[in-house]
Write a structure and sequence with these properties.
The structure is a single chain. The chain has one domain: ABC transporter type 1, transmembrane domain (ABC transporter transmembrane region fold, Up-down Bundle), CATH 1.20.1560. The two termini are 53 Å apart. 81% of the residues lie in helices and 3% in strands. It is an all-alpha fold and 355 residues long. The chain is elongated and about 105 Å long. It has a two-stranded antiparallel sheet with strand order 1-2. The model has no long low-confidence stretch (mean pLDDT 78). The longest helix has 54 residues.
């Protein structure tokens, strides 16, 4: 991802965020084990002291989860704000060095859209969306491992359904990324048109073009809405398919697990533990499907910003400039000078000028 160089600039906060992520996920993954032992040993034996210990342990787990979640929220949002601040500063510094020729062919409104709207979208991804993706990935891996520890048979059945869930995520993720980029481009077009015409509002009023300009801007906004609607439909379809496949797989696995309990091959507490881990894994997959769409949108915005950073000025300073004599000596002469603006390369502003 293009944002990693900006994130790696702050290793301390990144480490704090990762530690908090792992701690919160680990705290959640210990709950099903405690629940299984309460069901199999506590309820069946009616041991009050034993039950008190396990409920106290759940309180401690809740405290660890709360502290780790608060630390994760602060660290990842700090990273998001810091990354966007660094990115905005670098993009603006680069834009200031591109020179007038770049802005002859690029609307300033489009540049402003990338500098504001795109970076805002990236802030959400570098902050909350990325942390949610990492947390749910840890939860998914941890839950799958504990599912195999709890019951390899049921886990094998659940694992067989994963490809049917993951492949649609990957396919839809690429589609959402393309549609997100198209939506951002249409929004940038509308912003550029508005900036150009509001900057020349006196000329627009002088020629009585208010209604015509407003109509064209409304059409540009409508095109942006149409592109955004296509992106939303793709994300909604991704979420619906992922949730249905996850729920269907859980129902099938639980049906088989109930048969194992009836036959005596599994205790009720162990089945409860497996159900909780399966719910954790399913929830993580569902949230990954949602977050994947947000990350795909942010990837499209990052690509647009990287295009700005990849632009190079047409006039560059010499690598080894020659020092001018003091005081300056010599004369300046133009011989058959030719010049055309970048926006109109076929129309010469100067042709054969000598002086």
């Amino acid at each position: 991802m293009a944002l990693w160089p900006y994130i790696w600039r702050h290793p301390g906060m990144l480490l704090a965020a990762l530690v908090a992520l792992v701690a919160s996920a680990a705290a959640m993954l210990t709950v099903p084990v405690a629940v299984r032992r309460m069901i199999d040993l506590g309820f069946s034996g009616a041991d009050g002291v034993f039950m008190d210990k396990y409920f106290a342990m759940l309180i401690v787990i809740g405290l660890v989860l709360a502290v780790a979640s608060a630390g994760r929220m602060y660290a990842v949002n700090w990273l998001g704000e810091r990354v966007v601040a660094d990115l905005r500063a670098q993009v603006f510094r680069h834009l200031a060095m591109l020179g007038p020729a770049f802005y002859e062919t690029t609307h300033s409104g489009e540049v402003m859209s990338r500098l504001t709207a795109d970076t805002t979208q990236i802030k959400g991804a570098a902050g909350s969306a990325l942390s949610q993706a990492l947390r749910n990935l840890i939860m998914l891996v941890g839950a799958l491992v504990m599912m195999f520890v709890t019951s390899p048979t049921l886990s094998a059945l659940a694992l067989a359904a994963i490809p049917a869930i993951v492949f649609p995520l990957l396919a839809y993720g690429r589609a959402v990324r393309r549609l997100s980029r198209a939506a951002q481009d249409r929004l940038a077009d509308a912003s550029a048109y508005a900036a150009d015409n509001l900057g020349a509002v006196r000329a627009m009023a002088a020629f009585g073009q208010e209604a015509a300009v407003s109509g064209r801007f409304a059409a540009a906004v409508e095109r942006a809405f149409t592109a955004a609607r296509a992106r939303l439909l793709a994300r909604a379809g991704l979420t619906a398919i992922a949730i249905f496949l996850v729920v269907a797989s859980i129902v099938g696995v639980l049906w088989f697990g109930s048969r194992l309990v009836i036959s005596g091959d599994m205790t009720g507490g162990r089945l409860g533990q497996f159900i909780l881990y399966a719910v954790f894994a399913a929830g993580a997959m569902a949230e990954l499907a949602e977050v994947w769409g947000e990350l795909a949108q942010a990837a499209g915005a990052a690509e647009r910003l990287m295009e700005l950073l990849a632009a190079r000025p047409r006039v560059r300073d010499p690598v080894s400039p020659k020092r001018m004599p003091l005081p300056p000596l010599g004369t300046v002469e133009f011989r058959d000078a030719q010049f055309a603006y970048p926006a109109r390369p076929g129309v010469s502003a100067l042709n054969g000028v000598s002086f």
